[in-house]
Design brief:
alpha+beta, CNF1/YfiH-like putative cysteine hydrolases, seven-stranded mixed β-sheet, six-stranded mixed β-sheet, 5 helices, 16 strands, binds zinc ion, transferase, metal-binding, Cytotoxic_necrot_fac-like_cat, hydrolase, copper ion binding
Length: 273
C-alpha cells in the first residue's frame, strides 16, 4: 500500500511536508488563509493570472516567502499550460515570474533543480502537485498534473528525465502526491475517461462509474499508478489524503468555487546546507 502522509501546518498560510525537512528540502503548499486579497480571492491568492490585483498577489507571495526564509527573488514560477514540458532551473532563473507573469518560464508544467536557494513554485486550485526528490543526485522537482497533465504522464516524464538526463536511479527517486481534488469531488465525463483508458496501464483503481456517462476520477491514484509504471518504488511514493474541494476552510477549489477563486502555490527547493 502507498503510505498516506500529512502535510504539517507551519502557520495559517503554509503546510509543509516535513519528512524531507531534515535533508534541507523545503517542500510544501500554501493555504487560502493569511493573505490580503479580497473576494473571490480571499485571502492568500498566489496566482497572478486570475484577475486579482497584482499588488495583492505579490504581497501574498512575499508574506509566504518571508515566513519560509526565502526572499521572493529566489522563487521561480512557470507559465502553466496543462501540458508536460519540464525545465531544469538554475540560480540564473531566480525571480522569474515572481512579480511579473510574463517573465515566468514559458509553457512549462514541471520544474527541477540541483541548486540551493532556488525555490520552484507552481500554482494550483484542485490540480495535483507532484513533488520529486532524489537525495543521491540532489535533485528537487515539482510538476502540475490536472487531468490533462496526468494523461500526458508528466510525472513519468519527470522520473525518466532525471534518469536519462541527470543519471538518477529510479529506486532513489522519492515522490509526494500533494493536496488536490479527491475522487469524492471530481466527477468527469467520458471525454476524460477515454483519455485515461488510453494509457497503457491498468487504471481501474482510479475510476468509479457513477452512471453511463459520468465517473468519479481519482487523480491522485492515477498519478500514483503512473509513477509506479515509471519505475518509482511503491514505498517511495506518499499521497496526501487532503481534498482541496472538501477542505473549504483551507483551500481554494476551482471546481467547488465554480472557477472564480484563487490559487495556492506548491513549492520545493534546497535550503542552504
Ligand atoms: Zn472531496
Amino acid at each position: 500500500m502507498n503510505s498516506q502522509i500529512s502535510f504539517i501546518q507551519k502557520n495559517e498560510a503554509t503546510l509543509l511536508f516535513d519528512k524531507w525537512n531534515h535533508n534541507k528540502v523545503l517542500c510544501g503548499m500554501t493555504t487560502k488563509n493569511g493573505g490580503v486579497s479580497d473576494s473571490p480571492f480571499q485571502t492568500l491568492n498566489t496566482g497572478l493570472h486570475v484577475l486579482d490585483i497584482n499588488e495583492n498577489v505579490i504581497k501574498n507571495r512575499e508574506l509566504v516567502a518571508q515566513s519560509l526564509g526565502f526572499p521572493l527573488q529566489s522563487w521561480v514560477f512557470a507559465d502553466q499550460t496543462h501540458e508536460n514540458s519540464i525545465q531544469r532551473v538554475t540560480k540564473k532563473d531566480a525571480g522569474k515570474g515572481s512579480k511579473i507573469y510574463d517573465t515566468a518560464i514559458k509553457s512549462t508544467d514541471g520544474l527541477y533543480t540541483n541548486e540551493k536557494n532556488v525555490v520552484l513554485a507552481l500554482c494550483f486550485a484542485d490540480c495535483v502537485p507532484l513533488y520529486f526528490y532524489d537525495p543521491a543526485k540532489s535533485l528537487a522537482g515539482i510538476a502540475h498534473a490536472g487531468w490533462k497533465g496526468t494523461v500526458l504522464q508528466i510525472g513519468k516524464k519527470m522520473a525518466k528525465t532525471w534518469q536519462t538526463v541527470e543519471g538518477s536511479r529510479l529506486e532513489d527517486i522519492q515522490a509526494v502526491i500533494g493536496p488536490s481534488i479527491g475522487s469524492c469531488c471530481y466527477k468527469v465525463d467520458e471525454r476524460v475517461i477515454e483519455k485515461v483508458k488510453q494509457l497503457s496501464i491498468d487504471t481501474d483503481s482510479a475510476i468509479t462509474e457513477v452512471n453511463s456517462t459520468e465517473y468519479m476520477l481519482n487523480l491522485k491514484e492515477l498519478n500514483r499508478l503512473i509513477l509506479l509504471d515509471a519505475g518509482i518504488k511503491e514505498q517511495n511514493i506518499a499521497v496526501s489524503p487532503l481534498c482541496t474541494s472538501c477542505e473549504d476552510e483551507l483551500f481554494f477549489s476551482h471546481r467547488r468555487d465554480k472557477g472564480k477563486t484563487g490559487r495556492m502555490m506548491s513549492f520545493i527547493g534546497f535550503k542552504e546546507a
